[in-house]
Amino acid sequence: MKNTLKWLGLLIVAGFAMMLTVKIPALGLAEASFCGRCHAMDFQVSTYLHSPHANAANCGDCHDPHGLVTGSLFAAYTGARDVYRVVTDTTPKEIRATNLSKKVLQNNCLRCHGDIMGDIGDTSHNSGSFCFHCHHEIVHER
Asked: Which domain holds residue 12?
């Protein structure tokens, strides 16, 4: 029993360490060059590369939470989901943000553009609009 628990603990630690690797910048797992390897992301990557954000932010800067653990968990989850969809040929024709992804995107808009939003505040509160509802053409045209 002790041996089993020891191996289980080792697997958990190894799995957690592997999950954290998604946040290592040198691996480029949050870059358009990585995200664009999937044909389902052609439009998103193309519009991003022609946007003002291409020189200032990578895909993960907008689409992943910025905490080491929360960002790693989120990126590992969404990445595994995306790989599953590609392998099973169930990728939706139109890729849309989930409710959780919308909150992550909004938080990242405010994180980078908080100085501009200081007087206005978080526009998504009280059933308001997310930043990207009005500014979607800035990064990904519709």
From this structure: 2-138
